[in-house]
Specification:
FAD/NAD(P)-binding domain, seven-stranded mixed sheet, nucleotide-binding, 16 helices, NAD, Pyr_OxRdtase_I_AS, NADP, 3 domains, 475 residues, Enolase-like, domain 1, five-stranded antiparallel sheet, alpha/beta
Length: 475
């Protein structure tokens, strides 16, 4: 008989969810983790980055207090205090992901690198297990581009950025995606000089109308944006480190953060020994997240490549994957992955939230029959009252009024994402949003107003006006 029912590789968001569900259902589980319990999200990703952003937001609000008639001095940034806040956030959440908690569930936790030794065999830390099922949730790591000279320099990634004991004097960030932009704004608001170098345009995956509202906000915080700039080489500098662009421009700073993307952690897993098909994009699976080549194995989180859709490096996707695996692997129920209503948020100020595909992605997929609805958040009463008015809600619908995608830029845009994700995922018509009764005043009213724009031309048409004119004669 197998030693365990389920072997899980990786104690990040996906692996912990699968292990907890499996153990809760009475299955015998082995969980392998070579690093910190909680994975990237807890230790070097979501939690520390959002804690740092919260500190930066507090500094920014102090500077903007005069708009309310409140005069405050320039914030005095205590870097040790900021670091203590970040560490405290991690420490407060860590018990939920701890080895002790999972051992108490009955999970065998192996703090070592795991490696497949056969189609149904795995070893780690000198221990060998046979398994009925295995779930690979080893996550991803920062991509380090092959820039000449970079390998020999002390660059930072998200895995080392939060270890800095001193505030950077000039933080140069290679990459203008979500991580790069969030950390750029956070450090600029905390008193660092910041330059972002991006080969294309910043926030390249997001709707250009949303990015147009973000760009000036970053620059107003002191972030220097160098877009459309390719790096030819990296070299040492008396200040610390420098990037040399293809046009000869030299950008020197005290620190360099590399934030150009993520790559699945495939090395050292022994996937070949288990006959697990994979590519640089991740482990090849079907839409149930089951390996296409080893039916005993599933993949979850950043390392999964379901039917060529590619990985989605978000913690909420890890939870989505765990739910699908639970239904498909444990209960043998129909369960298929869909990213049609997937939300993502860049937690800058203003935030950018994208739910489902963008307008450009839909048109690239051949959808020409699109209705575009917009509502400016400059007209939102709550944001006006808070002195934060500005931004946009943009909805993309089909001719019948079914919501296909939503793009939002503005303060707290991510708080609107759930409303649109439910509407898209459940196939609700725009009338459901337009007719919803929402508390006043909230920023979410912007979403309702945008949805109402779909019906405005019909309600105000000459024909409707004639009908109303006739009806008014009735007693």
């Amino acid at each position: 008989m197998p030693d365990v029912d389920v072997a899980v590789i990786g104690a990040g968001a996906a692996g912990l969810s699968v292990a907890a569900i499996s153990a809760g259902l009475g299955l015998k589980v082995a969980l392998f983790e070579r690093g910190e319990m909680g994975g990237d999200c807890l230790n070097t990703g979501c939690v520390p980055s959002k804690a740092l952003l919260a500190a930066a937001h507090a500094a920014a609000e102090a500077r903007r207090a005069p708009r309310f008639g409140i005069r405050l001095p320039e914030p005095d940034i205590d870097w040790d205090g900021v670091r203590a806040h970040v560490a405290g956030a991690i420490a407060a959440i860590a018990p939920n992901d701890s080895e002790e908690r999972f051992r108490a569930m009955g999970v065998t936790v192996v703090r070592a690198t795991a490696r497949f030794t056969g189609p149904d065999r795995i070893e780690g830390g000198g221990q060998r297990f046979a398994f009925r099922r295995a779930v690979v949730a080893a996550g991803s790591s920062a991509v380090v581009p092959p820039v000449p000279g970079l390998a020999g320099l002390p660059y930072l990634t998200n895995e080392t950025l939060f270890d800095l004991t001193r505030k950077p004097g000039h933080l140069v960030i290679l990459g203008g995606g979500p991580i790069g932009l969030e950390m750029a704004q956070a450090h600029a608001r905390l008193g660092c000089r910041v330059t972002v170098v991006e080969a294309a345009a910043i926030a390249g995956r997001e709707d250009p109308e949303c990015v147009a509202a973000l760009r000036p906000a970053l620059e107003a915080d002191g972030v220097a944006l160098v877009e459309g700039a390719r790096v030819a080489s990296a070299e040492g500098d008396p200040a610390g480190i420098a990037l040399v662009l293809e046009d000869g421009t030299r950008i020197a700073g005290t620190h360099l953060l590399v934030a150009v993307g993520r790559t699945p952690r495939l090395a050292a897993l022994g996937l070949e020994a288990a006959g697990i098909a994979h590519s640089p994009r991740g482990i090849a699976t079907d839409l149930t997240l089951r390996s296409v080549s080893n039916r005993r194995v599933w993949a979850a989180g950043d390392i999964a490549d379901p039917q060529g859709l590619g990985p989605r490096a978000f913690t909420h996707v890890c939870s989505q994957h765990a739910g699908i695996i639970a239904r498909a692997m444990m209960f043998r129920l129909p369960a298929k992955l869909s990213y049609d209503a997937l939300p993502r948020v860049t937690y800058t100020d203003p935030e950018i939230a994208q739910i489902g595909p963008t307008e450009a992605e839909l048109r690239a997929a051949g959808r020409a029959d699109l209705t575009i609805l917009r509502w400016p958040l400059a007209e939102n009463d709550r944001l006006v009252a808070e002195g934060r008015a500005g931004g946009l809600v943009k909805l993309v619908a089909d001719p019948k009024g079914r919501l296909l995608g939503a793009s939002v830029v503005g303060p707290g845009a991510g708080n609107m994402a759930g409303m649109f994700a439910v509407a898209i995922g459940r196939g609700l018509p725009l009338s459901a949003l337009a007719g919803a009764v929402l508390p006043y005043p909230t920023a979410q009213e912007g979403g309702k107003r945008a949805a109402s724009e779909f019906f405005a031309p019909r309600l105000l048409s000459p024909g409707v006006k004639r009908i109303v004119g006739l009806l008014k004669r009735l007693p």
